[in-house]
Specification:
Blueprint lengths: L2 H26 L14 H8 L7 E5 L3 H6 L4 H8 L23 E5 L5 H14 L6 E6 L6 H12 L4 E7 L2 E2 L2 E2 H4 L15 E6 L3 H16 L5 E6 L17 H8 L3 H11 L5 H24 L14 H14 L1
Parallel strand pairs: 1-2, 1-3, 3-4, 4-8, 7-8
Antiparallel strand pairs: 5-6
Bound molecules: thiamine diphosphate.
Thiamine diphosphate binds next to β3 and β5.
Length: 331
């Protein structure tokens, strides 16, 4: 990768970190309601993975989705506004933190039900194959999802039908307060791939380039008809499961230990060691990001709430059907 590409990855990771920190403050200030699952510590996974996608590829993820939305290029203003429940949000303020989406960018969400998006993503991969589009699907989940029935059903069909999909597990060691090894009979999640005859690989999820390389390889293989695969990125969330988590299940030393491997700091050191940029360049990027996030918070705060009359819009299929019919009549 050249200097600009590396700095772009750096910028995105800093953006996600700062965005999440400000979202936490807004939540504490009662500007954001409902659930809020932060992505701090895991930035290298979303940024590395999404940087390996083409615009035509499809992306599905679970409720810890802010990092994916930002990495996929959704406007920070519209993402923050969605968290604030405002009409200017990416889902018009009716989805909230767990349901970010942007159809234009082939970012299909943001799903609150653990494992619920796996059959949908697999169906999208079937559509890609059926339409001979040579696009592939990236389906992201937490390690907790791999103990859910849909995981096994989805992987089975994907392997059986040789679908163009990459399942990417973010193993952040815990599902809510439960250590992965207390919930999964197979601790090394990538080994679950062998039950379906697909390739599985574990990788360092704190290394943005390792994630990018592995996702790029497997997505390209999937696009060329090589079938599905399962990747397990080892990572860690620095904050609680959600804002309501008192974190009684882990020691501070464990959190500190993972922070020593911080993905942003690591990329910073790499860039500086390679003399691609100096401390002032990185500081300038951080200052730019700070301004973008401040602007997003201001925009979200000042935006209007959805109108009561919009309550049923974009909720029921009848409305969509009516609009399509009206458009056809117009044509
Ligand atoms: C079907 C279902 N069961 C339970 C829940 C409650 N729940 C929300 S998050 C979560 C933990 C999932 O952990 P993991 O998949 O590892 O993702 P992480 O939060 O670590 O990113 C659970 C059990 C849910 N949302 N959906």
């Amino acid at each position: 990768m050249n200097r600009d590409d590396l700095l772009s990855l750096y910028r995105q990771m800093v953006l996600i970190r700062r965005f999440e920190e400000r979202a936490a403050e807004a939540y504490a200030g009662a500007k954001i309601g409902g659930f809020l699952h932060l992505y701090i510590g895991e930035e290298a996974v979303a940024v590395g993975a999404v940087s390996a996608l083409k615009a035509e590829d499809h992306l599905f993820t679970h409720y810890r989705d802010h990092g994916y939305a930002l990495a996929r290029g959704l406007e920070p203003r519209a993402v923050m506004a969605e968290l604030f429940g405002k009409a200017t949000g990416v889902s018009k303020g009716k989805g909230g933190s767990m349901h970010l989406a942007d159809v234009q960018r082939h970012f299909w969400g943001g799903y609150a039900i653990v494992g619920g998006h796996l059959p949908l993503a697999t169906g999208m991969a079937l559509a890609c194959q059926y339409q001979d589009s040579h696009n592939a699907v990236l389906c992201v989940m937490g390690e907790g999802s791999t103990n859910i029935g849909e995981f096994h059903e989805a992987l089975n069909l994907a392997a059986l039908w040789h679908l163009p999909i990459l399942y990417l597990v973010e193993n952040n060691c815990y599902g809510m307060g439960t250590l992965a090894s207390r919930a999964s009979a197979e601790e090394e999640i990538y080994r679950k791939a062998c039950a379906y005859g697909m390739s599985g690989q574990r990788l360092d999820g704190m290394d943005v380039l390792a994630v990018r390389d592995a996702v790029a390889d497997h997505m390209e293989r999937a696009r060329r008809g090589g079938g599905p695969a399962l990747l397990e990125a080892m990572t860690y969330r620095y904050r609680g499961h959600s804002m309501a988590d008192p974190e009684l299940y882990r020691h501070k030393e464990e959190v500190q230990g993972w922070k020593l491997r911080d993905p942003i700091r690591r990329l910073e050191m790499m860039i500086q060691d390679a003399e691609l940029a100096g401390a002032p360049d990185l500081e300038r990027i951080r200052a730019e990001v700070e301004a973008v996030v401040e602007d997003a918070v201001r925009f979200a705060d000042q935006s209007p709430a959805p109108a009561p009359s919009a309550l049923f819009e974009d909720v029921y299929a009848e409305e969509a059907v009516r609009r399509v019919a009206a458009a056809r009549r117009g044509a």
